[in-house]
Amino acid sequence: MMNMPVSATEQHSQIYSQEFQKTLHRLYSGITDVQDLDSIYRQSHLDFIQENKHFHTIYYTKLCSQLGLQKKAIDSLNRIKHHAIEGADELKAHYYSALASIAINSEEPEKSKQLHLKSLHYFQLCDDHQYIQAQYINLGRCYTVLQNTDSAWFFYDQASHLGNLSKKNTLYLNLNRALTASLSGKTEYAKTYFIKALGSFDDADIHAKVRTLGNIADLFFEQDSLKMAEHYYTRAREFAKAHHLKADLFRLNRSLSKLYEHKQNYELAYWHYTFSDSLRQSFNLSEVDKSLDKGTQFKKEGLNTQKPETSKNPYLRIFSGLFVILVIVYLLWLFRNRRKPDKKSPNPLIIDKKAQEIIAELETLIFQKELYKQRNLTIQGLAKKLKTNRTYLSEIINAHYKKGFSKWINEVRVAEAKKMLASRASQKYSIQGISSMVGFSSISAFNSNFKALTGLTPSNFRDRT
């Protein structure tokens, strides 16, 4: 997309805004207590001219969001909504960027993606390369959470091709590349990007440091290096706790719960789970979601999003009632009978003894050892445990279950979630809690898969049963 010319007024505003943000950074440096944050905001806000007050509010909301105060952040943004969407392009860009940050911290990656695309559009009109790069990186992160890695890598490449990356953008680009590579099972690539990220770490803010440690822990967890994963999760948690980063603290406690469950230390697993669940409830995300919808209403404008979605949503959403019943019956049969080979099948993988042994070992890992509960479970990791290669295991799974690994494992998780949602003993757990316990990495992925397979949302399913 060709950048439109920037007027003299816009050029002045852009330069002034960058200098003003440096002032704000110095003003709020080291502030992690909510009361101190609010006090500085109230005292300094009166001293700023009207235009800068809006940028000050946006900066303040981003700090609130990092501390896990999503409702406070969105309420503050809504107070300047009219001025933002009617104001200069630069103000619109920062406004939508702040909304996008709140959305991703509120586990709404689809909304965050759309908001980052709007923000990108306005930063392009301002011809601000550093912020354009930042939006590309953020979009890569959103697409990673949405399990669309092709689009994620596309936007990372877009950020890299712009050149002249700042230290902060370099750090976050490598961190997000590492995260995407890790979740895609590309362990060696993930290690490479983490090493690159560590080289940009000197000037990083504490939020970046916590995220780096957490991502490194994720990588070790995926490789079953539980001691190292515990070490990095704990370090990250200590930093997050010391600096009151509630959103990060929530994710780290949830990860530690998974880790201790994997180690069969159920007392610690339960403690970290209940702690993370209490944090999430304190976010009041249902109210944030409603406020986000209000905050994103704006006049329709032609936006060039640079890149169409390159891979379709893998979860089919249109199922008839009859097909839903057949799926449920099939899943119950799968759990009880562990599917025996069809002797009439001409596919050699079905009747091959070695393939059947691998299937039996795979189902032992998934059902008896409950590896489906691991949110970072990959076919590559399973292949390593089964002492085979990824390609061969993928072929076996496709031949035996008539579907790919991702679809199969998510069906297993949904089946287990249905049992928990229908159980009185599990009524104490929230929908988010059950989603995490059965292995889904995000509530959006859980809802998509659950509705695709049952025709109902998890909440509706629980109400009916």
Structure characterization notes:
The chain is an all-alpha fold. It has two domains: 8-295, Alpha Horseshoe (Serine Threonine Protein Phosphatase 5, Tetratricopeptide repeat); 321-464, Homeodomain-like (Arc Repressor Mutant, subunit A, Orthogonal Bundle). It is built from 25 helices and no strands. The termini are far apart.
Features:
2 domains, Serine Threonine Protein Phosphatase 5, Tetratricopeptide repeat, disordered N terminus, Arc Repressor Mutant, subunit A, 25 helices, mainly alpha, single chain, globular, 465 residues
Give the SSE layout.
Layout: H1 8-28, H2 34-45, H3 50-66, H4 70-79, H5 81-86, H6 89-105, H7 109-126, H8 129-145, H9 149-162, H10 167-183, H11 187-198, H12 206-222, H13 226-242, H14 246-262, H15 266-283, H16 285-295, H17 321-337, H18 348-351, H19 353-368, H20 379-385, H21 390-401, H22 405-422, H23 431-437, H24 443-454, H25 458-464
Helix pairs in contact: 1-3, 2-3, 3-4, 3-6, 4-6, 4-16, 6-7, 7-8, 8-9, 8-10, 9-10, 10-11, 10-12, 12-13, 12-14, 13-14, 14-15
Structure in a nutshell:
This protein has 25 helices and no strands. The protein has 465 residues and is mainly alpha-helical.
The overall number of domains is 2
Q: What would you call the shape?
A: globular
Give a count of the beta strands, DSSP E runs of length 2 or more. Answer: 0
SS-derived structural category: mainly alpha
Q: What percent of residues are in strands?
A: under 5%
Helix percentage:
over 70%
Under the CATH scheme, the architecture of the largest domain is Alpha Horseshoe
Distance between the termini: 51 Å
Order of helices and strands: HHHHHHHHHHHHHHHHHHHHHHHHH
The CATH homologous superfamily of the largest domain is termed Tetratricopeptide repeat domain
The first-level CATH class of the largest domain is given as Mainly Alpha
